[in-house]
Amino acid sequence: MSAADWYAHKSLGDGLFWIQERFYQSQNRANIWLLRGSHQDVVIDTGLGLRSLPDYIDAMGLLGKDPQRKNPLLAVATHAHFDHAGGLHQFQQVGVHSAEVEALANGDNYETVTWLSDREIAEAPSPGWRARHYRVKAVQPTHILQEGDVINLGDRQLTVLHMPGHSRGSICLHDGDNKLLFSGDVVYDGAMIDWLPYSHVSDYVSSCERLVGLVDSEQVDQVLPGHYHTFGAKRLHRIATQYIDKAGTCPAKLSTWAWSTVAGVALRASYPRSVC
User: Fold this and answer.
1) 3-state SS, residue 175
2) What is the pTM (predicted TM-score) of this model?
3) Model pLDDT for residues 110-160, shown as the tens digit of each residue
4) What is the rounded CA–CA span in Å between residue 238 and residue 245?
5) Among 169, 235, 265, 269, which residue's beta carbon has the most beta carbons within 10 A?
6) Is residue 167 assigned to a domain?
7) Cα distance between residue 232 and residue 236, in whole Å
């Protein structure tokens, strides 16, 4: 299967594209965002990496047809989990938060939470492909990101907001001028996951308090999340406050502990620490 078949995209205007992996039919299927700037272009999250995302972007002319006028292209992972970072190795320039550089450089499929089944792949990307053979390939990031770093696209800037909780290196990218928030898995319109390896509930609460602050200070109009559909500031405020209110309750703590235990055992069985 070619890259042109594997992916699909939609233009949202103003140099912004939404890309998805058509045949990865799972709730874990991540949104891939492509944002063009006047001097730099950026891909935010890269999916599984089963087919070449750069080839698709080039074949579809998403960055323009003239190779002499193409900007540098930076791939940024909002965090290192497999559904967002699996395609990073396909890019020459790669950015990730400093807390997850080592996991990517080592190809640590425990920390990247690699969890894929054959039934989630509607059509195999290549003959004989099986999910049990899938791994996140090691990649050495060229851009080690920290809180407050600015990714300068020329006519627009993305500010790195370190928002741990879902993972220790989770980030949002904030386009303050246009009030856009690329939120990865920090927040989306679904159940927020705080029970994976290196998740931390108290960090997540702090990150959600920060999200509420962004809404209260009118710095966000639209959220472009790592999964599902986009949503506005009111919905962001509601999702974040609901997590804060629920996180400290006994049922929530018990559920997090139970899921964390199960996930840890399953992932260690699949990816022993000596391999990572």
Assistant:
1) strand
2) 0.91
3) 999 998 999 999 999 988 899 999 999 999 999 999 999 999 999 999 999
4) 10
5) 169
6) yes
7) 6
